[in-house]
Automatic annotation (TrEMBL):
GO terms for molecular function: transaminase activity. Signal peptide: none annotated. Its cofactor is pyridoxal 5'-phosphate. Transmembrane segments: none annotated. This is Aminotransferase class IV.
């Protein structure tokens, strides 16, 4: 069963509702996080909830108090008998609420969804995935907004494409719900925070890569570098580290997920226990 916490109560997800008066519905005002469990313990809850607060602040949503309740909601939700065994994904949503004052939102709503964790097809880690480059920037890159329309529209109906890859003016920023890394000229290159969301997985992978002695550059990789790149991968809390073997019409490297991608994924998996809440 999927569960939803709202306003002090847990209900089955299909019974939960957002009033039509909420600015999430009326104007797309809302921010969220996806937090998965390992052994039923939340992964990096502190960093995720800090980012949720920063997303809310930048969206003009006054959410400090409501977000401070979430750790207790996670604890209670994970102990609920309605959730069967297995790993869980917990998604806190902070909506704009019904009140807008000077384009700020002083009275937000909090929903926390608890769902069985669904992982990408394991075969994708062997074959790698395809991204579709789109010549646009994700608006307000520091906000993890509920609005994914910009990333979805360019690949609507494309079963062969995993996500859009935002490449404004030939500079690669991030994918629609992942950070992007390129291995080129013996370096690991990824866009700087500010051009992209500060992915929790991105931060951990960068730390592990530096610790392991990789040369790292935080700048936007260029589309013109793709032809000579050896490897590419994306990162995200659910997918962890996932190889990218095609971008639009281009094959990356030899068309298989490469050794750097696989090595960093192994290092990531080995460090997971340090981040469990
Ligand atoms: C969620 C998301 C990410 C990945 O963030 P993690 O904290 O690593 O899960 C990257 N970019 C965008 C646009 C996202 O929405």
């Amino acid at each position: 069963m999927m569960l939803c916490y709202h306003d002090g109560q847990f209900t089955p997800l299909e019974k939960a509702y957002v009033p039509l008066s909420d600015y999430a519905i009326q104007r797309g005002i809302g921010v969220f996080e996806s937090i998965r469990t390992y052994d039923r313990r939340p992964f990096a809850p502190g960093p995720h909830l800090e980012r949720l607060l920063r997303s809310a602040e930048q969206a003009g949503i006054e959410a400090r108090e409501i977000i401070s309740q979430i750790p207790a909601v996670f604890r209670e939700g994970l102990g609920r008998p309605e959730l069967q065994g297995g790993e869980i994904i917990m998604k806190p949503y902070v909506t704009g609420g019904d009140v807008m004052v000077n384009k700020r939102f002083p009275n937000p709503r909090l929903y926390v969804l608890f769902e069985p964790l669904e992982l990408p097809d394991p075969g994708l880690y062997q074959t790698g995935i395809t991204l579709e480059p789109v010549n646009m920037e994700r608006p307000f890159p520091l906000i993890k907004s509920i609005n994914y329309m910009f990333g979805y529209i360019p690949v609507a109906g494309r079963g062969d494409v995993f996500e859009s890859l935002f490449c404004p003016d030939g500079e690669i920023t991030e994918a629609s719900s992942s950070n992007f890394f390129l291995c080129v000229d013996g370096k690991l290159v990824t866009a700087p925070v500010g051009r992209v969301l500060p992915g929790i997985t991105r931060g951990i992978v960068l730390h592990l890569a530096r610790e392991a002695g990789f040369k790292v550059e935080e700048r936007c990789p260029k589309v013109t570098e793709l032809d000579r790149a050896d490897e590419a991968f994306i990162t995200g809390s659910i997918k962890e580290v996932l190889g990218v073997t095609r971008i639009g019409g281009r094959r990356i490297g030899n068309g298989r997920p490469g050794p750097v991608t696989q090595h960093l994924h192994r290092l990531y998996r080995a460090s997971i226990h340090k981040w469990l809440g």
